[in-house]
Design a protein that fits this description.
- By secondary structure, this protein is of the alpha/beta class.
- It folds into 2 domains: about 10-70 and about 155-250 and about 360-450, FAD/NAD(P)-binding domain, CATH 3.50.50.60; about 250-355, Flavocytochrome C3, Chain A, domain 1 (Alpha-Beta Complex), CATH 3.90.700.10.
- It has helices spanning about 10-25, 40-50, 85-95, 100-120, 155-165, 230-240, 270-275, 295-310, 320-330, 330-340, 395-415, 430-450, and strands spanning about 30-35, 55-60, 75, 130, 130-135, 145, 170-175, 180-185, 190-195, 200-210, 245, 250-255, 280, 315, 350-355, 360, 375, 380.
- Helix 6 crosses helix 12 (about 430-450).
- The protein starts with 10 loop residues before the first helix and ends with a helix.
- Bound molecules: flavin-adenine dinucleotide.
- Flavin-adenine dinucleotide binds near residues 59, 75, 212, 224 and 232.
């Protein structure tokens, strides 16, 4: 891993620094201004919004690259001009079954040009032609308003954010470091308890904690998410009576590459359909409007799979032509070929899989949770912007808009906390059991909420 701390640029040196500093925490608690749990787009962008005199630790359960932000293919939405405002707002609301929080939707859409400018300033390269940004379209969008970088938009954004973070001396990233608990007193968050890379348990006190822990795909057998994203923050929130919202709002993506192999499902981005790919049943007949919102399209595909007695339907990109497929979707093309299908010549089998989590830790418009000094951002949080179903390519945007909102409020209201004395770390020793119990807890809560519907 590269260090983000200018003094330690080589892997060995960072590991040394890490062991030395964090290892000390068994006796001596570390005090940070801010701890951010999660190094996806939400966490990285948030860290960059703080001034350089704030001491920030970021922790991630695996490596930095292993976050869903790196996997985003399709792109990121932007308001192209005020003439598109009503339409973008309506598309987001319609996809969300009008259960969206309109204040959040308005803030997200209106902030989008500014957020995109920040990304460009951080070095993110979006597709351009003749000096103009190019836009693609995805399901349930009434026009093309999605910026992209090949079919690797998330990797481009996350890598550039990470590069900028590495330049900041005030930000330290600790990989393979898992959040086990929050340190709470009188409904105020004073820090985190973590399992370090060396397996030791440690307490880190902080004036503010931001949870940017991503989604819950790891709880499902078939998901496009990284398997370590299992909703730990939700379980911890439940334990501390931190408010959750829309816990059972889970998005299934209609088109992932069908495979019998175990592990993460490979997404066939909605922009493939936005650019003209068609769906076929087993008799090679079209059966649905490919640009329906995700939940409705998923339901139609499932119906068709049942009728066909099949585990997949077919998707054809053939009409796009080999050159266009390779240019526009190089990563998808490569993966399909690896799996034995040539999308330039034949249909590929696709099937729905868990993809995104609309629910999460309830937050207000500034991303503040129901606990003082605790914020939640990105997919872990629920500010209601997506309602019951997320519109394609609104997620990266949402993560960044509300990460900035959190940082701004923390800066405005910044108050130091006294650290909590006598934290017993004994109960965290069996962390495998603890992790398993967190998974059970989240699944049980989803089940409970499902039954309430
Ligand atoms: C295949 C795929 C394609 C997608 N395509 C698009 C797209 O085109 N456009 C779009 O807008 N969105 C897309 N999305 C959704 C989008 O990528 C995510 O919603 C968004 O990136 C979430 O960012 P995040 O920072 O909240 O979480 P993530 O990027 O998932 O990061 C979560 C972080 O939390 C850490 N973490 C979790 N639990 C713990 C713990 N207990 N302790 C320590 N660390 C922990 C993880 O290690 C990770 O660093 C896609 C998602 C997938 C899976």
């Amino acid at each position: 891993m590269d260090s983000n701390n200018g003094e330690f640029m080589l892997q060995g040196y960072l590991n040394y620094q890490y062991t030395r500093e964090v290892g000390m925490m068994e006796q001596t608690e570390q005090n940070q201004d801010i701890v951010i749990v999660g190094t996806g787009a939400a966490g990285l962008f948030c860290a960059l919004q703080f001034p350089e005199d704030r001491n920030i630790w970021m922790i991630t359960k695996e490596t930095v690259e292993e976050s869903d932000s790196f996997l985003a293919q399709g792109g990121i939405c932007v308001l192209k001009g005020m003439s598109d405002y009503e339409s973008y707002f309506e598309d987001t609301m319609r996809a969300g079954h009008y259960e969206n929080n309109t204040e959040s939707v308005e803030l997200m859409i209106k902030s989008s040009p500014d957020i995109i400018q920040s990304l460009i300033d951080y070095g993110v390269e979006f597709e351009m032609q003749n000096g103009k940004l190019q836009y693609t379209r995805e399901g349930a969008h009434s026009t093309s308003r999605i910026l992209y970088h090949e079919d690797l938009t998330g990797k481009e954004i996350s890598t550039k954010l990470w590069d900028r973070v590495k330049e900041r001396k005030n930000i330290t990233i600790l990989e393979h470091t898992m959040l086990l608990d929050l340190i709470c007193e009188d409904n105020t968050c004073h820090g985190v308890v973590v399992k370090q890379a060396d397996g030791k348990i440690a307490a880190i006190s902080a004036n503010y904690v931001l949870l940017a822990c991503g989604g819950i795909g790891g709880l499902f057998e078939h998901s496009t998410n990284f398997p370590h994203l299992t909703g730990d923050a939700l379980a911890i929130a439940l334990q501390h009576d931190i408010r959750l919202k829309d816990v059972n709002y889970i998005q299934i993506h209609p088109t992932t590459l069908y495979s019998t192999k175990p592990g993460r499902r490979f997404l066939i981005s909605e922009s493939v359909r936005g650019e003209g790919a068609k769906l076929y049943n087993k008799n090679m007949e079209r059966f649905v409007d490919e640009l329906l919102p995700r939940d409705l399209l998923t339901a139609e595909i499932r119906k068709q799979m049942e009728k066909d007695d099949s585990k997949f339907v077919w998707l054809s990109m053939v009409d796009m032509g080999e050159e266009e497929i390779k240019k526009r979707f190089p990563n998808i093309y490569k993966k399909c070929v690896e799996e034995g299908y040539d999308p330039a010549k034949e249909c590929i089998p696709v099937t729905p899989a868990q993809h995104y989590y609309m629910g999460g830790i309830w937050v207000d418009i500034h991303s503040k949770t129901s606990m003082n000094h605790l914020y939640a951002i990105g997919e872990t949080s629920c500010n209601g912007v997506h309602g019951a179903n997320r519109l394609a390519s609104n997620s990266l945007l949402e993560s960044l808009v509300f990460a900035r909102a959190a940082a701004e409020q923390i800066q405005e209201q910044y108050t130091a906390l006294s650290s909590v004395e006598g934290i017993s770390l004994e109960k965290y020793k069996d962390f495998d059991k603890l992790e398993a119990s967190y998974k059970k807890m989240v699944l049980a809560e989803i089940e409970r909420m499902e039954q309430h519907v």
